[in-house]
Amino acid sequence: INAEYGEEHSYTGKMAPPNNISEAEHSPRSTNTSGSSTQEDNKCLITEGGNSSLLAAYHFNEYEVDEVYNIMGTKSRATVLICFLLSLFGEMFAPFGIVAPLFQVITPEPIYLTGYTNVTNLCNVSRDTWTWENKHRSIVSEFELQCEPMYRNLASAVFFVPGMALGLVVAGYLSDKVGRKKTNVVLMMGSAVSACGMALSTSFEMWLAFQAALGFTLGGTMVTRVLWMLEFVTESMRPYASAISAQFFCVGTALVPLADYYLQDWRMLDFIIVIYSVLCVLMMFWLPESPHWLVTNNKTKELHRTMQRLIDINRSKLDLRDIKIIPVPKHKESGNICIIFSDLRTLAIVLGLVYQWFLTSFLYYGFFNMIGTLAGTPHWNMAIMGIMEGPCLIVAGLVTTKLGRKRTMYSLLLIVIATCLLSLLNYPISTGWDLRRIFSLIGSKAGSGPMFLVVYILTLEVMPTSIRSIGMCTCSLIARLGAASPPFFLDLCRQYSPNLHYMVYVGMCAVGLLVAYFLPETKGETLKQTLAEGGNLARRTLPDVASTQTINKTDTVADKSSDQNNCEIQIDQDQPHTLGNTVDPGQQV
Fold first, then answer.
1. Which pLDDT score, from 0 to 100, does residue 165 have?
2. Which helix (H) or strand (E) holds 44?
3. Which of 64, 381, 469, 571 could form a disulfide linkage to 176, CB 3.0–4.6 angstroms apart?
4. Counts of helices then strands in the chain (DSSP H, E)
C-alpha cells in the first residue's frame, strides 16, 4: 500500500477492491448465514498513524482453477508443454491402433506358377500352384486366410469395437474416481502389453484376443487423455488446443499407411504401437494430475504441489501464499453418472449432447462411406484423407473461439445441409468423379469433421469435473453406434431411392439445429466442479482476470469465514509496503 492521507489513495495490491461498500455488501460470497449481508461482516480496516479508512471488503486470494490459469498466462510454458507432450505421444499414437488393422488384413499379390496365370480365385486351385509375394507380409498370408475374407474382416471389427466400448465405460468411471493420470498410465501399460501380444501372435484367434484388449485400452485413453490435457487449458484457448491436438491425430492417420507401405510387415506395425505406448507411459509419469480433479476431490496437498510445479515450469513470480483455490464441499458425485437423473433440466441437456455426438459420428462416417477411393491405392487414399482433415479443424478452432460453441455448431450443420441438398444435383465430371462425390467430401471434411471438435469442447465445459470423464465417455460410446450404422443405413436407403439418405441427413441436421438452440453456451465460463455447485449446470462466467504473471482480479467477493475480515493493518508511513504481488501502480481507489 502506498498512500498519503488526505490525498487520493493509490492502491497497488493484487486486486482492485469494490468501488464502494454497497458492491461488497451485495457480493455473492459476502452473505451471512441468515442470507443477508452487512458492512461489519466484510470490512477490512487499514490505519495510517491512528487514522483508519475502509479500503476493501473482499478476499484478496480466493480463485477458481481457471482464474489461476489466466493469471499464469493463457499461453504459459506449462500449458504448451503439457498439450504438446500429450498430443505427440497420445494423439499421434492412437491411429496406429485404430487404422493399422485395416492394412494388416490386406491380401497381398500372389505369384502363380506356370500354367495358372489366369486364375482369379485362389481357392479354386491347389495351394501348391502359387505362392505369396515376398515383399508384403500380412495376416492373410501369415495365417492362410485368403479363402475366408468375411471371417477375417468381420472378426476384426467384432472383437475390436466391443473392447473399445467396454474400455470407454471403465476408463470414464476410473478417471473420475481415481484420477486422470493414474487411469491413463494403467491403460497405456495395457496397450503396450496388448500390442506386444498382437505382434507375437502365433494364430489369427490369438491376434483377435489381443486386439480386443488393445481396443479396451484405446477406447478409454482416446477420451480421458484429451480431457486430461484440456483441463490444463484456459477457456479461451481450449478450441485452439483441441484443433492443434487434432493435427497430431491427422498426421498419425497419414503415417499408418505410409509405415505399412514401406515396412510391409504387419508385425512391425504392432511393435510401433508397443514403442509408442512405452514412451507415452514414461511421459505420463512426469506429467501432473489435473488440478480440476484434485480440487473436486479435496486433494489439497497434491493440488498445492501441482500448482507450484506449474508455476516453476512457467518461471513465474507468482507466490502460492497469495493464492487460495476455492475448495469444493464434500460430495459423492465422482464417477456417479446416475446423478444426471436427479434434475430434469440436467437430463435434457445431457440427452441433447448425446444426440449431437450420435449425429456428428453418423454424418461423418456416412459421408466417408460415400466418398470412395481418392487415389489409386488404399495406402495413399488413407494418407490423403488424413492430411485433408487438418486445415478444416484449425479453421473450426478459430471460429469457435470467436463465435462461441453454439454459433459454430449452427454454421457447421448448415454446411452439411447445403452439401446434402447440392448432392441431389448429380453431374458427372470425369471417370469415377461427379458432383455428388465432391459434395460428400466437403460435407465430411468441412462439416461433420469439425463438428467433433465443437461437440467435444461443449460437452467438456458443460459436464462438471465430478462426472466429466464418465459423461464424455458415455457420449463417445453412443458416437460409436453412429459410426457403425452408416453402411447398413445406406444399403437400406438405396433400396427405395438413390437420394433418400441425403433427405434423412437434412432432417437429422434440422433436429440438430433445434437441439443446439436449447444447449447452454459455454464460451467465457469456468469449468464447474460438481453439479451441486451453483445449481445444476448453472452458468458461471469467468471473471475478467488479466493474463499476467501477477494478479489483477476485478471480480472480488468476501467470505465470512476468512481471517482477513474485520482485520486491522498498521502502516508505517516511513516504510514502503506491498500487499501480495504488486501490479499496475496506476490503479486508484
1. 87
2. strand 44-48
3. 469
4. 22, 9
Mean pLDDT, residues 500-515 taken together: 92
pLDDT at res. 50: 39
What separation, in Å, do the N-terminal and C-terminal C-alpha atoms of the chain show?
11
Give the H/E segment covering residue 507: helix 500-518
Task: Give me 436's grid cell.
Answer: 455428388
* pLDDT exceeds cutoff 70 at 479: yes
The answer to whether 396 touches 413, Cβ cutoff 8 Å, is no
Above pLDDT 90, what percent of the chain? 23
With a cut of 90, say whether residue 193 has pLDDT above it: yes
pLDDT, position 535:
42
Query: Which residues, listed in sequence order, are joined to residue 54 by a DSSP beta bridge?
Result: 45
Label residues 434-463 b or e (16+ Cβ within 10 Å = b): bebbbbbbbbbbbbbbbbbbbbbbbbbbbb
> Residue 6's pLDDT is what?
41
CA–CA dist 15, 551 (Å, integer): 7
**Can you state the angle between helices 500-518 and 405-423, rounded to 10 degrees?**
170
- What are the CA-CA distances from residue 536 to residues 27, 284, 323 (Å)? 21, 33, 27
β-pair type (51-56, 433-434): unpaired
Q: According to the model, what pLDDT value does residue 490 have?
A: 82
- The pTM of this model reads 0.75
CB 48 within 8 A of CB 573: yes
Of 406 and 68, the one with more pLDDT: 406
**CA 152 – CA 155 distance, rounded (Å):** 5
Q: Which three cell numbers stand for residue 32?
A: 451471512
The runs of H, that is alpha helices, within 115-230 are 139-143, 149-178, 180-199, 204-230
- 121 CB-contact burial (10 Å; exposed 0-12 / middle 13-18 / buried 19+): exposed
pLDDT > 70: percent of the chain: 70
Per-position b or e across 354-385, b if 16+ CB within 10 A of its CB:
bbbbbbbbbbbbbbbbbbeeeeeeebbbbbeb
Q: CA-CA distance, 416 to 414, in Å (whole number)?
A: 5
Cα 248 → chain centroid = 13
The cell 508397443 sits on which residue?
A: 274
**Angle between the N-to-C axes of helices 344-371 and 500-518, in degrees from 0 to 180, rounded to the nearest 10:** 150
Residue 179 CA to chain centroid, in angstroms?
16
- What per-residue confidence (pLDDT) applies to 52? 36
Instruction: State the amino acid at position 234 in one-letter form.
Output: T
Most confident of the ranges 125-139, 175-189, 302-316, 573-587? 175-189
Q: What is the per-residue pLDDT across 526-545, written as a single tens digit (0 to 9) for each?
A: 888 877 664 444 444 444 44
Q: How far is CA 539 from CA 40, 238, 337, 528, in A?
A: 30, 18, 20, 9
For residues 245 and 193, is the Cβ–Cβ distance under 8 A? no
- Alpha carbon 307 to chain centroid, angstroms: 21
* Residue type (1 letter), 231: E
- pLDDT greater than 60 at residue 325: yes
In this model, does residue 488 exceed pLDDT 50? Answer: yes
Beta-carbon contacts of residue 301 (< 8 Å; ≥ 6 apart): none
